[in-house]
Each structure stands twice: as structure tokens, then as C-alpha cells.
Specification:
The chain is mainly alpha-helical and about 90 residues long. It is about 50% helix and about 5% strand. The protein contains two helices and two strands; from the N terminus they run ββαα. A two-stranded antiparallel sheet has the order 1-2. The longest helix has 25 residues, at about 65-85. Mean pLDDT is about 80; it is low at about 1-15.
Length: about 90
């Protein structure tokens, strides 16, 4: 969205069902079905950033620090898996 408006989906249909020429904003299949780019990776990135900031405020070696460190490690793994999934779309 730009300034409260939704921008139209820019897509070019490919006969072979490949990605569009607009940088991967949409995905078209051979029958003309258009899929929007999933935003889950950006959302997870924002969450990871927030949790890392929380971790930096904790005192090293404390129980809360260790719990937060485990949470950040899980989010890193989640983002890594999501990036792998994006490659295989």
C-alpha cells in the first residue's frame, strides 16, 4: 500500500507458468491463476529484530537472558527455513 491506497498487482502471464517479470511480486500459473507474494518473511524479520533488541537489554548469564536467547535462536531458524522455502517456489 502506498499512502493508504492499494497498488494494482503488476503481473505478466507466462505460458510456462514461471515467475513474472516484475521482480517476483506475483506468481502466475499456466492456467492464469495469480498468487500474491507472501509477506511472512518480512513479518518474521521484524519479529526477529524486536526479539534481538530485547535480548540485548538482558543481563548476560541470567535465566531471562538464556530464555530470550533460545527464543531468538528459534526465530533465526524459522527465518532460515522461510528463506529456503522462497527459493523453492
Amino acid at each position: 500500500m502506498i499512502h493508504g491506497r492499494q497498488t494494482p498487482a503488476r503481473s505478466s502471464h507466462h505460458a510456462d507458468g514461471g515467475q513474472t517479470a516484475d521482480g517476483g511480486l506475483t506468481f502466475c500459473t499456466s492456467d492464469g491463476t495469480v498468487y500474491e507474494n507472501p509477506r511472512y518473511l518480512a513479518r518474521s524479520g521484524r519479529k526477529l529484530k524486536r526479539e534481538q533488541k530485547k535480548l540485548s537489554r538482558r543481563q548476560k548469564g541470567s535465566n531471562r537472558y538464556n530464555r530470550q536467547r533460545q527464543k531468538v535462536n528459534r526465530l533465526h531458524a524459522k527465518v532460515r527455513r522461510q528463506r529456503q522455502d522462497q527459493i523453492h517456489l
